[in-house]
Amino acid sequence: MSDLYKTPLHALHLELGAKMVPFAGYDMPVQYPLGVMKEHQHTREKAGLFDVSHMGQVIVRGASYKEAALGLETMIPVDILSLPEYRQRYGYFTNDQGGIEDDLMLANRGDHVFVVVNAACKAADIARLKAALEPAIQVTEITDRALLALQGPASETVLSALDPHAATLRFMDVATLDLDGVEAWVSRSGYTGEDGYEISVPAEQADHIARALLSHADVEPIGLGARDSLRLEAGLCLYGHDIDTTTTPGEAALTWAIQKSRRAGDRAGGFPGADVILSQLENGASRKRVGLIPEGRAPMREGVALYASEDSNTPIGTITSGGFGPTVGHPVAMGYVTTDHATKGTTVYGELRGKRLPLTVAAMPFTPAKFKR
Amino acid sequence: MKFTEEHEWLKEEGDLIVVGITEHAATQLGDVVFVELPDAGTTVSKDDEVVVIESVKAASDILAPLDGEIVEVNEALADSPSTVNDDAMEGGWFFKMKPSDLSPMDDYMDEAAYKKLID
Asked: What is the DSSP string of A70-96?
């Protein structure tokens, strides 16, 4: 285990009794003594604190915000230029085939773009950014800051106790807060479907801030296990599972992230795979990511093949994420099916341990999003 | 009571053997959300996969500890799979089987040996 990276909160996880697992090269908490189910429910009911310091934090800085934004727009099919100051947007790097190289968050922090990328992809992302943008635009990985996520309905009360300004932020707003004397780069966002914040703080103060947040009666530490079930119920993609280099935005039902200005007009296209991605916007894709609800109690997980009927020979798709949804109280899944089976209410069959079991194509999120818009 | 290396407990009840998983195993598995049980009347061979336990984390198999016939399954687990976590050693039992060959019982661990295994 000695070859695994540790986040600045590693010692705190051990002190809190976390069960640690390797994840994207890091030794990370998968659960605490509360357990996955209760951690999940606690986050939906009160507030959960997640260590997401393994994710990549990157500053992209040009001569102006505009220069950095336009540089990033050559790699990402999102309108970054018109992103208002101190606002954040979801996006993804694409490849020449129209596939997704990684998904990410982009924030306009005044004179630069602050980018948060997935842990497993961060080395490749940073190399890709540097190759495409430097030397005109500087790409700097921030390695001396931890990243925390505070998620759940009590988050506003908890964070406001440290800096009342937290309460004034709306969903996807970004600000620099003063948390007990510590400079925190905060966004009102997260990956659970709940209201909440993502909080970047200097590594040496991360333990202090985490303890300050955990000292609130409503806050429990939450591991990767519940993070996965929370994001699955929220219908959010996990990179490397629900989206990857072979899935296009059209197939992945993520075209909402492509603003009009990147679809038509003088800033349309200009990102890798634009021909494929824009053509699918016009004509549709042959397969689609959908929500799936198994009719029985048996969870159906990643890799389960999907069929149109109980006896057909050719699969129409695959489950990419699945498990039990603690809040909805039944199994949930997402996966890809051919477009003719992607309509809500369609019954498809998953092959589980040699048996074909029915699932219904369903709307996502499975639990209503509670963002503070 | 006897124990297998797969963390099953085996309890003799008349000429039947009741099978469940230990508290230690239940804790390791995490919150159990679904248990797939065999049909009563199924004939099984030792080491057949007879039960699937789905926890919030993953699916795990339970192997038949002996040759024989499944005579009763714990239907209550369909509605309350969490009994496997809450009452692993009693109410969380999976099935009762009528063994055709009891001799492997001698090879399974007693409680002291099992405790040594999990320490």
From this structure: HHHHTTSSS--TTPPTTBEEEEEEE-T
**Given CB atoms, is B31 within the 8 Å cutoff of chain A?**
yes
Which residue in B52, B56, B78 is closest to A324 by CB distance?
Answer: B56
Q: Does B57 touch chain A (CB under 8 A)?
A: yes
pLDDT the model gives residue A66: 98
Q: Give dist(CA B63, CA B61) in Å, integer.
A: 6
Whether A119 contacts A57, CB under 8 Å: no
Q: Residue B102: which residues within 8 A CB-CB, separation 6 or more? A: B66
Chain centroid to CA A62: 26
ipTM of the shown complex: 0.83
For strands A219-221 and A47-51, give the pairing. parallel
Mean pLDDT of A149-174: 98
Q: Which helix (H) or strand (E) holds A275?
A: helix A274-283
Using a cut of 0.90, tell me whether the model's pTM lies above it: yes
**Minimal CA separation from A353 to chain B, in Å:** 10
Please report which helix (H) or strand (E) contains residue B83, including its range: helix B83-86
Partnered with residue A202 across adjacent β-strands are A145
Whether the CB of B115 is below 8 Å from some CB of chain A: the reply is: no
Neighboring chain A residues of B56 at a CB cutoff of 8 Å: 36-37, 40, 225, 229, 323-324, 326
CB contact under 8 A, A225 and B57: yes
State the nearest Cα–Cα gap between A124 and chain B, in angstroms.
29
A152 touches chain B (CB under 8 A): no
Tokens 């630069």, residue? A112
C-alpha closest to that of A308 among A340, A286, A283, A334: A340
**Using one digit for the tens of pLDDT, what is the confidence trace for A194-239?**
999 999 999 999 999 999 999 999 999 999 999 999 999 999 999 9
Q: Which residue has the tokens 């993070």?
A: A227
Inter-chain contact A36–B33, Cβ cutoff 8 Å? no
Which of chain B's residues have a Cβ under 8 Å away from the Cβ of A353?
36, 52
How far is Cα A351 from Cα A248, in angstroms, rounded to an integer?
25
pLDDT digits (tens, 9 = 90+) for A90-142: 999 999 999 999 999 999 999 999 999 999 999 999 999 999 999 999 999 99
Enumerate the residues of chain A whose CB falls inside 8 A of the CB of residue B78. Answer: 297
Dist CA A231 CA A119 (whole Å): 16
- The answer to whether residues B58 and B89 touch, using CB atoms and an 8 Å cutoff, is no
